[in-house]
Amino acid sequence: MPTTAHTAHALADVTASDSTLRRFLHGLPGVDAVGLEARAASLGTRSIKTTAKAYAIDLAISMVDLTTLEGADTPGKVRALGAKAVHPDPTDRTTPATAAVCVYPDMVPAAKEAVAGSTVKVASVATAFPAGRAALAVKLADVHEAVAAGADEIDMVIDRGAFLAGNYMKVYDEIVAVKEACGTSARLKVIFETGELSTYDNIRRASWLGMLAGADFIKTSTGKVAVNATPANTLLMLEAVRDFRAQTGIQIGVKPAGGIRTSKDAIKFLVLVNETAGEDWLSNHWFRFGASSLLNDLLMQRQKLATGRYSGPDYVTVD
Amino acid sequence: MSERLTVFKTYKLYVGGKFPRSESGRVYEVTDKKGNWLANVPLSSRKDARDAVVAARKAFGGWAGATAYNRGQILYRIAEMLEGRREQFAREVADAEGLSKSKAAVVVDAAIDRWVWYAGWTDKIAQVVGGGNPVAGPFFNLSSPEPTGVVTVLAPQESSFLGLVSVIAPVIATGNTAIVIASEKSPLPALSLGEVLATSDLPGGVVNILSGRTAEIAAPLAAHQDVNAIDLAGADAVLAKELEIAAADNLKRVLRPQPVDEVDWSATPGIDRMTAFLETKTVWHPTGSLGASGSSY
Amino acid sequence: MAFEYAPAPESRAIVDIAPSYGLFIDGEFTEAADGKVFKTVSPSTEEVLSEIAQAGPEDVDRAVKAARKAFEKWSALPGSERAKYLFRIARIIQERSRELAVLETLDNGKPIKETRDADLPLVAAHFFYYAGWADKLDHAGFGTDPRPLGVAGQVIPWNFPLLMLAWKIAPALATGNTVVLKPAETTPLSALFFADICRQAGLPKGVVNILPGYGDTGAALVAHPDVNKVAFTGSTAVGKEIAKTVAGTRKKLTLELGGKGANIVFDDAPIDQAVEGIVNGIFFNQGQVCCAGSRLLVQESIQDELLDSLKRRLTTLRLGDPLDKNTDIGAINSEEQLSRITSLVEQGEAEGAERWSPACEIPSSGYWFAPTLFTNVTQAHRIARDEIFGPVLSVLTFRTPDEAVAKANNTQYGLSAGIWTEKGSRILAVANKLRAGVVWSNTFNKFDPTSPFGGYKESGFGREGGRHGLEAYLDV
């Protein structure tokens, strides 16, 4: 599917200047933390059984950005990951492929090769992931390299320091520049590192900032800090993309990342999507899970539904 | 047929939810009133005391932040767990205090009921000692009690179990965490209580129990800058004064010991032992009028 | 492809409902003296659940006598012993909470999600809280050694059957009273299961007596000369009758009656949470809640935005089988209640208000009413004045805080209100001016055993819950 074109939209004047942007972000409705968390918890009590569960598990598998972001990554490791992304369960070829593999820029060529001929995309973190502490030129070079190597998607981190210091325009400009570096071929996911933004009001502001700047996806976190994706912060971001589409007609994707390890968790997130943003977001074009260990749990649950008996870690591959 | 040889229990400290021996490797002998050997128990060191402070501090945020209802449920659970082990405690109390089986049983029952009493206080104390204040101005003004923090408790020397429970329960009911120095001569009921606390959903570190020489362990704790309060129930007059002076260094809240002849652990407690380790926080917030016109309904 | 949730029904096998139940008097189940019985049905299916003995005046007399006899010993027990009985009851309720949740859902029609996550936890917590007071009455602020009143006659409604029982029985027993309680005729089962819990807890016989029946049973109970205390939760009309009945006697009276709560949303509200609060305020328990936020007062400047969000949210509500764990809206409790809601809604339309409901499938049997929203409502409309006691929200607008308060207070009721704004001083200023017993800010329908609940004006008097709730059962 083509990347959403961000032409002049209803909110174009918001980013006319530093002060209009600030006024807009600070004018967004506040978030009551207790109420937000209660709503997320309440949706977490939905009971997804039988056919609904089978549907949700396959959907979740198809939404996984199978991720390896370690200093010890090698082409071999990435090839194995790619193979797993294409055929997550070698014993059952009806298992859907994952959405993407997510790697560091220098691993993009290996990843491309591993998923060649499949639907699996290659996503690459860039912009001095995970801290984002580098000069803009360095960040853009990072992006260019990944895109040139064939990355279909770029997962950038915002400059949290600038955001927390109130330099919203700096964050905005940087996202715009990265978006431009992505060209027309790569979709851009903007990572806020919600755990560092700390407050829900900040997460809502960052979401709108990212969407205004041209993000194709807004993403919770890097997986490298203490608090990553939670039902509450993901719910809040789903409200943001819902409201953004209502105002501009532009649909943006959401990617919770880090900390989602079980099928049960993943299904709770899908319920959040279904009952907040709605079914238009229930495809891997609009919703992703940034995860590594989640996939095996989904596969084990899938095997359980197929065979009626509980599976074990020896019956899924370790890649 | 020969009589079965019993299995002795190794009595250990209770710190941070675990059961360590003293890091010093030292033990001392505990006997019953007649001088018969009962057990070798850890002779805690200053280092054990410091470890206990670290554990109590780590547990404080979670315990103070737990709902009062949750704390009440857990204190009640302690009573339930003790009820199931009342024979064991009656035996230990009888040995420790030289009481008959039946008298010791009465003491244990009273100790169980004491947990129930304090279980009921967790969500009521704020309603008794807190409240709104009608300040003369357009302000909302509310005072609420909050736990003081980490409390060192010198358990009573004579009442090895009822006295012990009577000083621990009020400290933790309100959300403080505690480092308890067991009765020096009769520490066994206290060390066994640790086993009960560990199986009552009480988070590790909320209560930490040390055995040893009271004066030796209490001195560093009274001076410790990360301890917020001290209950001197188990100190004699000389030691109490010494510890109170040390405690003044960071202005610990001090609960002085009652004179020995005035102590009746079996009497229904009041709320004093809770209020001794509570701070009052008062919050102001403007109310103002509804609109610029100042009209009202 | 849509994400269709497959049915996820809670098993009803966990609860064993007997074909018939007697009255619970003096620790025994017995027939009514005149042999009368009535049926209790499941409002979601109209299936008959059980046949229940219907207490008449003779039975009332017998129950009051049993309670009187039990009072002597019960009130003389040390508080710490009464406490332990109540703690036992609290624990047994926790243990049996799943069974009781299913039972309550079957008999009342409310979703299992609510009985499981709200009713039952609150019931257990209420007993736990008042258990703790039983031996601390000296500290409650009513002087030393405050005395109980004697026999309490208690009449409760059908909207929260077991929770209302807990609100009545827990403080009464903690303070040393004995009780005769009449559950509502459409929801007698959980009270009768509670009788079994009293047995398991070893509660002395006669301390709790349960008399199922209709309004005449309740009337006989509150009129009984040997009742010292009357506590009633229900409609304002019946509350007024009861107040007349006890006039001139020494009976202490507390009433928890109707309401027409205003949920006030200012333009600086946390909108997404306000929408949740509005939904919770009027659709929790199908709106059959005395403190429901049945009037939405929204600041005119955000009316469109808020209503759009609200309507979108209402389309996600799931109405259907109350035992399904994903059901948000269950059945209306009775045919009678359904027809009352229907008639008021028809009047609303006739008076020119604009009616809206999300598309939703109504089951073919049972009593159901779709979530309903009325816009263009003014203070003059009946749907803005009368308590509908159903899933029907009337939307009114205001321009200034003054006007919001004036409209909120413009009712004979005064039970609850909600305030939504991120501005703290506005919350407190508005709360100061509201004539209502419970004011929720940036939340709604929150209950806790430590927190007093009760009304101003014709919403009744006396408080249940908290330290304040003790007063109703003490001779002070």
UniProtKB/TrEMBL annotation, chain B:
Family annotation (InterPro entries): Ald_DH/histidinol_DH (IPR016161), Ald_DH_N (IPR016162), Aldehyde_DH_dom (IPR015590)
A Pfam family the protein falls into: Aldedh
Keyword Oxidoreductase: yes
Positions of the Aldehyde dehydrogenase domain: 24-254
Keywords per UniProt: Oxidoreductase
Name assigned to this protein: Aldehyde dehydrogenase family protein
UniProtKB/TrEMBL annotation, chain C:
Organism: Streptomyces coacervatus
A Pfam family it matches: Aldedh
Signal peptide: none
Protein name as catalogued: Aldehyde dehydrogenase family protein
SUPFAM superfamilies the record matches: ALDH-like (SSF53720)
Residue ranges of every copy of the Aldehyde dehydrogenase domain listed in the record: 30-475
InterPro entries hit by this protein: Ald_DH/histidinol_DH, Ald_DH_C, Ald_DH_CS_CYS, Ald_DH_N, Aldehyde_DH_dom
Keywords annotated in UniProt: Oxidoreductase
